[in-house]
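Retro notes (design track)

What went well: tokenization of the new backbones is finally stable.
What didn't: we kept losing track of which sequence belonged to which structure.
Fix going forward: every design gets posted as structure first, then sequence, in one message. First example under the new rule, 208 residues:
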């Protein structure tokens, strides 16, 4: 074999090996909606509607993940999902609650992929971390919010979804996550100390 062919073979193998070892990171961004179930204000006899309805608002989820270990058809990833909904309207007959809220969820997690590295890979995820709620400075109908405009709490994250890879480095992600957090301060009691924030979204994923 000529020196030129040997050199070409060495370069080709080096590129393949390098590619195999470097494509262990993933970045994704998905866009969707967050849903929070209706809550009822306790001991509220002065409102026409004592129920608090949470608007299903546009949300975004950013995610960085890294392959930690693979065996057979499974791949174990460490991931950091960061989900945000900037504004969620609150609709009720009471004027003592903020007009809207916003939220940020940061939940380092472990993700298990099935058929890891294949064209279609379903996955499940679980983890926990930090949540921050923003309460509006204005009340539902009129007036200033006398309560806090920022609430910190812990969050537990459960997720599932699947990734489709039409190309080697670029794919499509569809995901659903439950950010099970504490509650924002709404100036009323609903008898709850935690709430489900269900996020559903679709977007792109990049492998590198």
């Amino acid at each position: 074999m000529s020196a030129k062919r040997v050199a070409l073979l060495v370069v080709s193998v080096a590129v393949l090996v390098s590619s195999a070892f470097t494509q262990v990171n993933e970045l994704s961004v998905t866009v969707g909606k967050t849903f929070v179930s209706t809550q009822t204000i306790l001991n509220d006899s002065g409102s026409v509607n004592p129920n608090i309805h949470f608007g299903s608002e546009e949300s975004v989820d950013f995610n960085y993940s890294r392959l930690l270990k693979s065996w057979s058809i499974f791949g174990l990833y460490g991931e950091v999902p960061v989900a945000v909904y900037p504004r969620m309207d609150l609709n009720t007959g009471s004027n003592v609650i903020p007009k809207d809220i916003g939220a940020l969820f940061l939940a380092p997690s472990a993700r298990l992929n099935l058929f890891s590295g294949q064209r279609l890979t379903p996955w499940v995820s679980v983890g926990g971390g930090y949540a921050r709620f923003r309460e509006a400075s204005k009340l539902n109908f009129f007036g200033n919010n006398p309560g806090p405009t920022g609430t910190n709490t812990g969050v537990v994250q459960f997720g599932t979804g699947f990734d489709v890879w039409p190309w080697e480095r670029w794919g499509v992600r569809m995901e659903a996550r439950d950010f099970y957090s504490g509650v924002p301060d709404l100036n009323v009691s609903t008898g709850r100390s935690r709430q489900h924030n269900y996020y559903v979204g679709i977007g792109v994923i990049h492998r590198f």
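Added context from the reviewer: The CA atoms of residues 14 and 20 lie 10 Å apart.
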